[in-house]
Amino acid sequence: MQRLYLLVFFFLSGISGLIYEIAWVRQASLTFGVSVYAYSAVLGAYMIGLALGSYLMGKRASNRSRPLRTYAILEIGIAFLAALSPLVLTSLNGFYAAVTHAFHPGLVWLTLLRVVLSIVVLTPITFLIGATLPIMSQIYATQVGKVGSDVGRLYLVNTAGAVLGCLLTGVFLIRLFGLRETVFLGAALNLSVAAGALWLAGLSGRRQSQEQPAEPSQATAASAKAAHPEHRHQTRPEPLELSPRVLHYVAVGYAISGFLALGYEIVWARILSIHTLHAVYSFSLMLTVFLSGLAVGSALGVWWLRHYRGTLAQFGILQLGIGLLSILALFVFARLPSIRIQDVFGGYSVTREVLYELLLAFITLFPSTVLIGALFPIVSSLYTRERTAEVGLRVGTVSALNTLGAIVGSLGAGFVLIPVLGLRNTCLLLSGTYLVLGTGALWLAPRNQSRLRWVPLPVLGLALIATFVMPPGLYLGFREEPTDYLVYYKEGVETTVAVFDLPPDKFRELLSGQPIERRTDSAEQDSTVRSFKISYVNGRDEVPTGEVSMLAFHLLGHLPPLLRPNARNALVLSFGNGIATGTLNTHNIPVIDAVDLSREMIEAAQIYHEENYDVLSSSRLRLHIEDARNFLMQSDDQYDIITVDATHPSNANSWILFTQEFYELVRQRLSTDGVFMQWLPIHSLSGADYQAIMRTFHHVFPHTTLWYTGGIHSFLVATPRPLTEEGLNTALAAAADNTIVRDDLGPPLAIVGYLALFEKGLGVYVGSGPLVTDNNAFFLPIR
After folding, report:
1. Which of 154, 443, 489, 592 sits a CA distance of 20 to 30 A from 521?
2. How many CB atoms lie within 10 A of CB 124?
């Protein structure tokens, strides 16, 4: 029964650990931004703490006379620091802004600052989290010959808890309770675990005091039998006899496996994001499936070790299997466009979309992650040699090595491998490394297993054949292969961007979701017919140049300078392909700062040079590769015009641009007589969320009007004074003789027609109700 309690404690601890990871990444993005550089800084600090805690506690675990009490103290410390983390992370905003204002650091120094601040805040907590595995291993794994299966069982229940915590936090808890309250819930779980551990420690202490002391030479064996009465009459399995060379290979190999596993996670997440909505919950769903595979794999590893002895050959075969399955997964990724939600689930709803994204992750990630999860029990068995002495030290060491490898893997894959090699080739490189590791392990196998040395040959042959017949490594999301209309494709650090230049009929097919065929000689585009362009950013269509969308871009660029003539400067948040910015630039504003997270989108803007008035060649334009909100925090400039054309609020990178705190930040950067304009989509957003965003905007900017240009495009415009009909007519009079404005928007009377609600009417429409804050923002993609 005591062992069951320990498993329950570690399961609950796993839930809280993933609650914190999801919540901290989300909250840290409010300070450090949503760029991959900011995310990597937070994740790196998180994992550094895990590695240090695992290693340092492992060195001391065997010296703890009351390990259960130590474990309880760790859980109390986690709960206390975690409960403080929302306040501490929020308090970083001012310090971070002050430092960036004072020194204006470049990307390298800015990333270093993010890493340092993340380490200061998160590493102490994750240090304690990392320390729980070696100390719990010391408590639980007390039987010689069954160390690997016992440690594997701990890993299994902890990972199973992580699966539940990841799914609940990413889909339900933050939306239902808020970010801060979700962290408090995780802290409550840790306190419950601590209370249970203290109770169990007291119960065990009373039992030991009532028992006859064993002979000193038999103390360890008697303790093990008392803890495991079901094994009293069983023959004790023998420990493993492994050479130092084998142990060294296992440790180094498992560290490299950590590098490869996190590299896979980064690559797989990037590819899957192209085929999903990339909503606020999408990454959590992918991570849920990833962790589920690890849990199932560890369960299989535990079962195996209960029946068979762990061997180096098993370690090698698992590595070979991971490498081969990961190559074969690329074929499945290539076929994902043919698996449509309407075909599988009969239509769209939020629930069906969640199930659909889980399905895509399952069929691509699950097989490989099962084998990755099976590695840990095998490695634990080999590296401890199935001896109970120094279990905590050995488990802590090998876990720390794996975590350090994972840190390097996450950084190396995101910043180096993907931009240089691309998604497919990065995956092939990682798979090849797994195959090499597996081959090396089998060649180190004992002489009596020399026949196993030839096992890699058919695996390597199959992997080589699969590589040669691999489908094209272009991931578009909506189709399997590129067409002749594809004019730009690039996979960068942040985004995968594809641009199509289409004749009118093919453009309509693409927008309607129908397949577009390859161009033939008889279907060559007539040079006299205007072509249409559209970009796909991580699989989602952006910047279509159809009439309705162009009208929206032009209003976003023309209206602010008409309402604020003679503006000294302007700020565009989300440059995209530059159409709104180019339109703004036609008004001869001396300085225009434009910000975008995707370097690839800015490169692709050259293809839109006709639509964006060749804005990239303008000497007045200053481009910044940065997260929009983070740029505002770093800047100390005041702008006469600020426009925001972010992606949908439900997008994982854009929700932070529709909260009260963001609007207050904009107000700080807006001059006294400045104009602020934001695109607000009508589609895929519930009526309640749409009203809540407008209510929040109106709360921060009382003089707000609502504009609508048709289709899915509405706009919120904040002015320094109430905008009246007379004032609007006066402002638009300047457009009467402006040829560009008339060509883009029509005469002044037509522009007035885009105004949907004046300030008073907007106030009536939004009414009273909750505001959108950083703590509660969670927009579901409703259709």
Report:
1. 489
2. 16
Q: Please report the beta strands in 386-523, taking only residues with DSSP state E, as ranges in sequence order.
A: 486-491, 496-502
3-state secondary structure 451-467: HHHHCHHHHHHHHHHHH
| Residue numbers of the chain with a pLDDT score lower than 50 | 212-235, 519-528
- Nearby residues of 124 by Cβ (< 8 Å), 6 or more positions away: 49, 81
**Residue 428 and residue 467 in contact, taking contact as beta carbons nearer than 8 Å:** yes
Q: What confidence score (pLDDT) does residue 467 get?
A: 94
Tell me if residue 187 falls in helix, strand or coil: helix
Residue written as token pair 């950084």: 411
Helix/strand/coil for 178: coil
Determine the Cα–Cα distance for residues 214 and 203; give it in Å rounded to an integer: 19
Tell me how far apart the alpha carbons of residues 482 and 517 are, in angstroms, rounded to a whole number: 10
State the Cα–Cα distance between residues 141 and 133, nearest whole angstrom.
Answer: 11
pLDDT given for residue 514 in this prediction: 59
- What is the C-alpha to C-alpha distance for residues 156 and 139, in angstroms, rounded to an integer? 16
- Please give the pLDDT value at position 219: 39
In Å, how far are 107, 340, 441, 641, 707 from 563, measured between CA atoms? 35, 45, 70, 10, 13
State how far the alpha carbon of 43 is from the alpha carbons of 118, 390, 416, 474, 631, in Å.
9, 30, 17, 28, 21
CA dihedral 303, 309, 311, 315 (to 10 degrees): 10
pLDDT at 226: 41
695: tokens are 């209510």
Amino acid occupying residue 128 = L
Picking from 564, 540, 487, 782, the residue whose alpha carbon sits closest to that of residue 646 is 540
Please tell me the distance from the alpha carbon of residue 634 to that of residue 22, in angstroms, as a whole number.
25
The reported pLDDT for the residue numbered 228 is: 46
